[in-house]
Specification:
Helix content: under 10%
Strand order of the largest sheet: 2-1-4-3
Structural class: mainly beta
Order of helices and strands: EEEE
Strand content: over 45%
Oligomer: single chain
Distance between the termini: 14 Å
């Protein structure tokens, strides 16, 4: 979860297919896969409970 915005995003790698939960990022920023040279694509986004 991103401590500043409270947004959490579920990501999937476009190359190896790994799924990972990470903090949200601003649009236009490439998020590298932790397991391969591919990039992560945003799947779902949600805000932390108030």
């Amino acid at each position: 979860m991103d401590a500043l915005t409270g947004t959490t995003v579920w990501w999937a790698c476009t190359d190896c297919g790994i799924d990972v939960e990470l903090a949200g990022v601003d649009g236009g920023v490439a998020v590298p896969c932790p397991d391969c040279p591919g990039e992560l694509a945003e799947q779902w986004r949600w805000d932390a409970a108030a």
